[in-house]
Amino acid sequence: MSISALSALANHDCQGLRFILTDFDDTLTWEGQLPVETLHALAQLEVNGLKVIPVTGGCAGWSDMIARSLPVDGVITEGGACFIGKTADRHLTYAFWRNEFEMRAEQSRLLDQVNQVLIQFPRLRLARDQSYRLTDVAIDYAQDITPPAIEDKNACLAALIALGLNAKASSIHINVCSQGYDKFSMAQRILSQVYGLSDAEQQQQVLYVGDAPNDESMFARFPLSVGVANIAEHLSIMRHRPRYQTTQPGGLGFAELADFVLSARRV
Fold first, then answer.
1. Fewer beta carbons below 10 Å: N end or C end of the chain?
2. In Å, how far are 32, 66, 84, 260 from 2, measured between CA atoms?
3. Angle at the Cα of 4 (from 25 to 208), degrees rounded to 5?
4. Do the beta carbons of residue 86 and residue 93 sit within 8 Å?
5. pLDDT in tens, 13-40
């Protein structure tokens, strides 16, 4: 599928939006930072009644901070394992895909398997935030490793998949988690059970924005989907691509998208 410029996104689609779901690393951030433009965009979207929900492979500990400190309506964390929501008085709630204790036990088994595979790849290591993860295992290949270990990442990912593990690459990590869920399955559950959206309403009222192959489950199912400019380096290996693409990368591209949507809604 060819990708259209953001300018091709129709005004009536923007006017019908209620939710923007977004990846975090290299989609809201850029070069490891949250740009001022991104924070302003998040604030403006909230003021204008659009609910933003980050959907990230990042750890639950970090996602807790995001939910508490940024103008977002909640966070789907660890690749769909858990939704950190907010009550009316801004207290946080945690909703896991399955029983929390079962998922924690599965994480321990996954960690043992991952550590055995990592012996073959000395340049790779567990992500620094592994201790703050509740359900999955993250392998760093580009977050704190310079230059990024791309070849090792590809070989390690293949080795994990050959073992039957549910492993996917983001722009910085390989994430290994239990079978049975992904970003889309949890997003669909939350949009339905928490926000009361039917499947048809989700197709019309939700836009997803991302930057990497681990966003494919979202690009495949949300007709309104946008890739920030840095997704270009991954497109050749992606089966499911976004429908539109920004001209700016990362959080600057997200701000570009927010400005476009808000302008279209004023027409």
1. C
2. 29, 33, 34, 21
3. 35
4. yes
5. 999 999 999 999 999 999 999 999 999 9
The pair of three-digit structure tokens given for residue 69, joined into one six-digit string: 């400190």
Q: Assign 3-state DSSP to the chain and report helix, strand, coil percentages, each to 5.
A: 45, 20, 35
Could you tell me which of 11, 10, 19, 28 has the C-alpha nearest to residue 252? 28
Instruction: Give the tokens for residue 88.
Output: 């009316």
Residue-wise pLDDT for 45-94, tens only, equals 999 999 999 999 899 999 999 999 999 999 999 999 999 999 988 899 99
Residue 63, class by beta-carbon neighbours within 10 Å (0-12 exposed, 13-18 middle, 19+ buried)? buried
Place of tokens 């690393």: 25
Length of the chain as a residue count: 267
Indicate the residue type of 258: A
What's the rounded Cα separation, in Å, for the pair 27 and 227? 8
| Tally of helices (H runs) and strands (E runs) in the chain | 9, 13
Residue among 208, 213, 214, 212 nearest 244 (CA): 208
What is d(CA 99, CA 107) in angstroms, rounded to the nearest whole number?
12
Please answer whether residues 107 and 135 qualify as being in contact, where contact means their C-beta atoms are separated by less than 8 angstroms: yes
Tokens 């043992």 correspond to: 112
Dist. CA 193–CA 207, nearest whole Å: 18
Burial of residue 158 (number of CB atoms within 10 Å: 0-12, 13-18, 19+): exposed
Q: First-to-last CA distance in the chain?
A: 29
What is the Cα–Cα distance from 154 to 213, expressed in whole angstroms? 13
